[in-house]
Amino acid sequence: MANGTRADLVGLFHKDQLTIGISELSRMTGVSPRQLRYWQKKGYIIPKNEDEPGKPRIYTMRMVIKAAAMSNLLQTGYTLKAAAAQVDERMRPAQTMYHVIFDRYEGFEVTDDGELLVNLGTFDPDPSQQLFAKMVNGEVKFEIKHK
Fold first, then answer.
1. What domains can be seen in the chain, in order of their start residue?
2. 10-30 average pLDDT score
3. What are the b/e assignments for 76-105, b being 16+ CB within 10 Å?
4. Can you give the pTM of this predicted structure?
5. What residue stretches are annotated with the HTH merR-type domain (predicted)?
6. Please, which residues have CB within 8 angstroms of residue 18's CB and are 6 or more apart in sequence?
7. What does the pLDDT look like over 75-133, one tens digit per residue?
8. Residues β-bridged to residue 132
9. What is residue 46's DSSP assignment?
10. pLDDT of residue 69
């Protein structure tokens, strides 16, 4: 049986892995660095290293997407506050999916007969069991196994 670890997937897709500086963020979004600093001051965008004063700001891809979407909404007439709220609401499903996938994922197993089982960790109602997901005829199915 082959196995994959949580680190395998998280290492590939970790949301904080890809970062850019404020100059690059400005170029990508068309928003001036001064305006981006104002958005940060207001709490609408948050640099990854916000707890390191004096260091150049770096932003995650999530903040890049948020800043770009806010810029687009501002151009269509939204206020800054309304644009930030709208983007947060639009990003909410994606953030939830990210957490469902990455917070629960503990690895995968390939059984001797070639079936791929995605380990989603402890089954909440019964800690002695683990929850697995698998594809059966193009549909996601779940399986519970004892630890």
1. 17-103 (1.10.1660.10), 106-146 (no CATH)
2. 77
3. eebeeeebbeebeeeeeeeeeeeeeeeeeb
4. 0.65
5. 19-89
6. 60, 61
7. 999 999 999 999 999 999 988 887 888 888 888 889 888 899 999 999 988 999 999 99
8. 119, 143
9. -
10. 96
**What whole-number percentage of the chain has pLDDT above 70?**
88
Tokens of residue 72, six digits: 């687009």
Only one residue has tokens 């697995």, namely 132
* Token duo for residue 4: 């994959």
Token pair belonging to 31: 């928003």
| DSSP class of 105 | -
Terminal-residue alpha carbon distance, the chain: 16
The pLDDT of residue 125 is 86
* Residue listed under structure tokens 């709220």: 85
DSSP letter at 111 equals -
- Please classify residue 125 by burial: count the beta carbons closer than 10 Å to its beta carbon, then call 0-12 exposed, 13-18 middle and 19+ buried: exposed
In this model, does residue 40 exceed pLDDT 90?
A: yes
Contacts of residue 49, Cβ cutoff 8 Å, sequence gap at least 6 = 55, 57, 58
Q: Work out the mean pLDDT of the chain and round it to a whole number.
A: 87
Q: How far apart, in Å, are the Cα atoms of 95 and each of 50, 101, 113, 136, 146?
A: 20, 10, 35, 27, 30
